[in-house]
Amino acid sequence: AATKLASAEKLMYFCTDQLGLEQDFEQKQMPDGKLPVDGFLLCVDVSRGMNRNFDEQLKFVSNLYNQLAKTKKPVVVVLTKCDEGVERYIRDAHAFALGKKNLQVVETSARSNVNVELAFSTLVQLVDKSRAKAKIIPYFEALKQQSQQIAAAKDKYEWLVSRIVKSHNEAWPNVSRKMQPAPEYQDYVYLEGTQKAKKLFLQHVQRLKQEHIERRRRMYLALLPQALDALVPELDEIDHLSRAKAEKLLEAKPDFHKWFVVLEETPWDATSHVDNADSERIPFDLLETPAAEQLYEAHLEKLRNERKRAEMRRAFRENLESSPFVTPGKPWEEARSFIMNEDFYLWLEESVYMDIYGKHQKQLIDKAKEDFQELLLEYSELFYELELDAKPSKEKMGVIQEVLGEEQRFKALQKLQAERDALILKHIHFVYHPTKETCPSCGACVDARVEQLLGSRFVRPAERHPRNPLPDSNVDRINLVILGKDGLARELANEIRALCTNDDKFVIEGKMYELSLRPIEGNVRLPVNAFQTPTFQPHGCLCLYNSKESLSYVVESIEKSRESTLGRRDNHAAQLPLALALVNKRGDAGGETLQSLVQQGQQIASKLQCVFLEPSSAGLGYGRNINEKQIGQVLKALLDSKRNLNLLGSTSGPKEAAAAAAAEADLRIVMCLMCGDPVSAEEVLLPILQAPACRPSPGAAGAV
């Protein structure tokens, strides 16, 4: 209770850590000489102490207070350890203070840093009356405010740590030096201390390390199924092996070290391997983890399921081959109930069975067609009495079907009557035109094969020294629009298809071309009847008519088509090669009406600048067989027009176009005069004759 102290050359201590280590801390001496005391903090421990009677303690505090009161100095009662305080002790301490005049009580906790500053500031205000009076806050209310302040400071500090610390390999000394200038770090250290700040840093680093390990683990587990597929793709290798034997089998594989790495220290996530970014190989001890064991079991199950599905596919194919209900052309809907059972549905989707069934049907149909073709050859006498270039009448077709009807090879195509009739028509055409183009063997025809072999073995003179090669990947395909009204286009398309091979190929001069037909009979301004579609680029148009109305329809459609593409960069309709053909029914080949239609057709052809084909020259009689040779000529002319358009599009002028065409042929001389271009025949001819690839005879110039 002394109010004057002598403190010469004594050091000030701030915490017990300084005892014995004074040289490690800032040294600050107490004031020299006598030190006056201005006030007292009377501290009362309100926690439950060992072998301590609080009533006796309170008596000692009362006696001490009486001594302090005699000094006339301000006194503040400070209740300490309130974080562990006993409610009765706190109540008794307050009761003691109430018995004294103007004695203030502050509830504190040094451990929680609650109201510690408040105790000193309260005493300072009592000493210095000019200062504002401090508001005394009960412990629990102050603790709540303190907790909120600490929580806010902690959130800011953790944000600072997450922004600065990005790697789990960071060390506390380096990081703390970086964070010292930041107010977030300073506030939290002031409230909670350096040790708690370090603890939060270590927790963050550990969290980063666990996240890094988890990323590596997910990467390894994602790679493990690929490794198992590569090393043990067969079920028989591992189906009955234990885990230990399966691991030994993996180690014995030649590509084992491509997928796995065996570490000297385990487990892998506790070694430096977690930081080896250059290695993506799977640590072999990872196979001992539950997640890897599940993936191994999943691999086994996948192999077993694949084997079972393969067995189901094989059983289904065997069922198809042995079932008497599966015949050529029978739809899947009709055959499904006879060939499917519950086991099939358990293992595979119906779409898989439909795909297998479709392939099996194709084999059945191809075999049935081949057998039927042999049947037609065996009954060749049935076709001798037909007129040349004529379709068989209904009566004759009835006779043919009656004779062949008892044959099993005829009955096999019962579900494909349209294709069977088409095979009969093709066979009739072959009987009267036995050429390589009409041969039932299609591409396997010996004559066609010989030409192909000769063409591939021997090089033509012009091809030895190509001047301007003009590759055209689309030259082996002909897209033909057939324009006609009242069924004319569809009828002609069907007759042309009857002349094609089974895969819609047509032979022109020994070469196979893919023929795509687009019959149009409606308004060409509608998208469904347009000449050109995203998947169909026409190379020519064959226009059919048999009356004034159908001729008017043709003219109208051509004009509409040209108008719709007018002004477009790809104005294909304006350059499209056209051929106009008059078709008539058999027996209606004369008379004024026919002559009038011919004259009108010739006029329209002149107007449209296209070729006119009369019935006698075109062989396009409605209801008659088409003369294949003449159809081939039409398609060949179309093919030549297509090539010439390519030549004109790739050269700069008429002379260059003609020279390119001449170099492309052997001794064929082509003259291309552009409309409205004032160029003479001699100016075009001379460069051609001077071309090395073209060496005409002395009389060739006159012929040209």
Outline the structure in words:
The radius of gyration is 52 Å and the shape is elongated. With 704 residues, it is α/β, with parallel strands linked by helices. Among the domains are: 100 residues, Rossmann fold; 96 residues, no CATH class; 98 residues, no CATH class; 143 residues, Rossmann fold (3-Layer(aba) Sandwich), CATH 3.40.50. It is 52% helix and 9% strand. The protein contains 28 helices and 13 strands. Helix 2 links the parallel strand 4 and strand 5. The strands form four sheets. The protein has a six-stranded mixed sheet. The termini are far apart.
A few lines on this structure:
With 704 residues, the protein is α/β, with parallel strands linked by helices.
Radius of gyration in whole Å, from Cα? 52 Å
Roughly what percent helix? 40-55%
N-to-C span:
141 Å
The number of helices is: 28
Assign an overall shape.
Answer: elongated
> What is CATH's topology name of the domain at 477-566 and 594-646?
Rossmann fold
Structural class: alpha/beta
Give the helix/strand layout.
Elements: E1 4-6, E2 34-36, E3 40-45, H1 54-69, E4 75-80, H2 87-98, E5 104-107, H3 116-127, H4 139-164, H5 172-179, H6 183-192, H7 194-231, H8 235-238, H9 243-251, H10 256-259, E6 260-261, E7 282-283, H11 290-322, H12 332-339, H13 342-347, H14 350-378, H15 394-404, H16 408-411, H17 417-432, H18 446-457, H19 461-464, E8 477-483, H20 488-499, E9 505-508, E10 511-520, E11 540-545, H21 548-564, H22 572-575, E12 578-582, H23 592-608, E13 611-613, H24 615-618, H25 628-650, H26 654-664, H27 681-690, H28 700-703
Parallel strand pairs: 3-4, 4-5, 6-7, 8-10, 8-11, 11-12, 12-13
Antiparallel strand pairs: 1-2, 9-10
Helix pairs in contact: 4-6, 4-7, 6-7, 7-11, 11-14, 14-17, 25-26, 26-27
